[in-house]
Amino acid sequence: MAVESVLTFAAEGILTKLTDLAAQEFRMAWGFKAELRKLSQSLPILQDFLGDAAEKAKDGGKAVEDWVKKLKDIADEADDVLEEINYDFLRRQVELQNQMGKKVLNLLSASNPILFRQKMAHRIRKISASLAELKNEAAFIGLVAKKKDPTSQRIREDRETNAFIGKDEIIIGRNAVVSDIVTTLTKSKTNEQNLSVMAIVGMPGLGKTTLAKSVYNEGAIDEYFNKKLWVCVSNTFNVNSILAAMLELLSGKVATTSQQALLTNLQEELSGKRYFLVLDDVWNDEKKKWESLKSCLSKLNSAPGSKIIVTTRSGIVASITETLPQPKLKLLSTDECWSILKHAACSDGSSDIPLGLERIGREIAKNCEGLPLMAKKEITRSERRE
Predict the structure, then answer these.
(1) pTM (2 d.p.)
(2) Are strands 195-201 and 306-312 parallel, antiparallel or unpaired?
(3) Which of 85, 91, 201, 330 is the most exposed place for a label (fewest CB within 10 A)?
(4) Computed from CA positions of residues 339, 345, 349, 353, in that sequence, does the dihedral angle turn out positive or negative?
(5) Which residues form the Disease resistance N-terminal domain (predicted)?
(6) Is the pLDDT reported for residue 196 higher than 60?
(7) Number of Cβ atoms within 10 Å of the Cβ of 97
(8) What are the angstrom distances between the C-alpha of 45 and each of 40, 41, 78, 128?
(9) C-alpha closest to that of 68 among 10, 19, 144, 142
């Protein structure tokens, strides 16, 4: 059982949402600030048991495995609650009207705000009580809390990305940025350099990964580069893991060998070739690790003009990695967010939107606060309610 990955997703992913919601709580005054604070304090305490649970689970401990499953179930419930709270946050200012189509009824919540707050507060208290019981059970089965290194403990979302563009991943309001990036990657003076790096940086939901995918799949990129590679880095920046992922993409070989062997095989694949590498969702801000990766890549004898795109939320990461001008990503306008919602809602290809629905849809788009990912999540949220 992959204890560490399960718990990372269950606990750290929830912590990310808790952090966002804590900030929103002060603005929205939902009425369950104390409950959210208690929940946000409980999860990190249980995280301290992660390392010991992973070690003991390897020995086949049934009690530990059951404990992990319970934590996962509780975390799933917490995730559902936080999703509902976030959904309510985005919908609070949109009023339900009597004459609406089924799609609109599914997009909006008609629940009484006072009853909603009471219900959410009760569910959060119940989750916190379950976590308290789980903490006591951890001590009973012999789990030891081990503090993680605070410099390595980040609040992160555990996710895997790929270079394929889904039908809902449309580019709205970014076409000029895509064009500028492609031009920089294929026609700039930096093509004389062996390896150049561009950072796409911005807050969560701004569409960094979708933008990188759009660039990756441009015809001009295919024409200019001999090889393309997409590696989702996310939580752990491990040089050998990145090299191994590159080799697997190029040759189909699953590499678990030494760095020397990895570089030898990569050199065979990339020597004399111009390649384009996307490192998506990079969190590492240790310059030494980045320099170690660049040192390895410089030994591949690739052709001048090879490029790397790094997507990251961190300006520090960008400053460490980038050698090319940084593209500026602005928040989308309400009209652009509405276009994303409309595209996702009209799955049958129809462009006819009733006036009442359009007005409500534009209110929803306004609440997306210029974030493309927020707009996409809202239509997904409505579909789950159907």
Answers:
(1) 0.59
(2) parallel
(3) 330
(4) negative
(5) 14-99
(6) yes
(7) 13
(8) 9, 7, 16, 12
(9) 10
Residues 120 and 194 grouped into a single domain: no
Q: Which residues contact 304 (CB under 8 A, 6 or more apart)?
A: 191, 192, 193, 194, 274
Total structural domains in the chain? Answer: 3
**Residues 308 and 270 sit within 8 Å (Cβ to Cβ):** no
Do 208 and 345 belong together in one domain?
no
114 and 64 in a common domain: yes
76, 78, 84, 90 alpha-carbon torsion, rounded to 10°: -110
The whole-angstrom separation of Cα 318 and Cα 283 is: 10
Q: Which two tokens stand for residue 207?
A: 């569409």
Residue 273 sits in which domain range? 175-321
Average pLDDT over residues 260-275: 95
- pLDDT-above-70 percentage for the chain: 67
| Predicted pLDDT at 227 | 97
Query: Is 350 part of any domain?
Result: yes
**Three-class DSSP labels, 2-57:** CHHHHHHHHHHHHHHHHHHHHHHHHHHCCCCHHHHHHHHHHHHHHHCCHHHHHHHH
